[in-house]
Amino acid sequence: MKPTPSGELLYEYAEKILSLHQESHMALQKQEIKTISIGTIETLVIYCLPRILEQFKEQYPDVLIRIIPDCEENIIRRVNDKEIDFGFILDSPCIVPEIESLSIQKERMAVVVPFNHLFENREAITLNDLENQSLLLTEKGCTYRAFLLEKLKKHGVPYNVSMELSSVETIKKAVQNEWGIGFLPDYTIAHDDPVKAIHFANEEFDFYRQLIYKKEKTNQKVFNLFISLFNE
């Protein structure tokens, strides 16, 4: 069967389109990436990112890493608007159209108390135990702070936010000084810290360490390597 002249012309155009698509895909693969921007929160920068960045720099020492501190809500928006390449967040599962979310690990939350506190020898506590305790919390905009206060309101537990502090280490120091009790991710408390982490008996805090990014980021070899390091 011999194609018509119009059919031959259409076939030529189809070949050109396919060739252009392949060329553009190869160009994207070869495009030089000079900077990776990561929106994240303080606790993840201090306790979780160093190993990953060290491994990445071993293979791409000339790529500049820009760490952009922000709250989870803003990080998700900025990834979606392509203002930053990646978001590394601690939050409930991120479900946003056109954003890929790599769930890395579920994280436990803990109440942080000084060693001579009345909770010191408790294996676990409940939300009711926090009634009228002096709470030393992170600033507004922090997802786990908001989640805790919402839980307390929902259960009708009176609470007292005594201080708002911007640094995890400052919160731990304030707890050590017996100014109140904190609420932090369990991974921020080391065995040799002069404070103690106590978990909740029956409460589920669905917080996951997650890497979020736009799907087109996987077209780049550099970005693919960066994403893969979070799976190790």
UniProtKB/TrEMBL annotation:
GO terms for biological process: regulation of DNA-templated transcription. The keyword Transcription regulation applies. One of its GO terms (molecular function) is transcription cis-regulatory region binding. Gene3D superfamilies: 3.40.190.290. Keywords: DNA-binding, Transcription, Transcription regulation. Transmembrane segments: none annotated. The keyword Signal does not apply. It holds the Pfam family LysR_substrate. It comes from the Bacteria. SUPFAM superfamilies: Periplasmic binding protein-like II (SSF53850). Residues 31-230 form the LysR substrate-binding domain. Belongs to the LysR transcriptional regulatory family. This is Transcriptional regulator (LysR family). It comes from Halalkalibacterium halodurans (strain ATCC BAA-125 / DSM 18197 / FERM 7344 / JCM 9153 / C-125) (Bacillus halodurans).
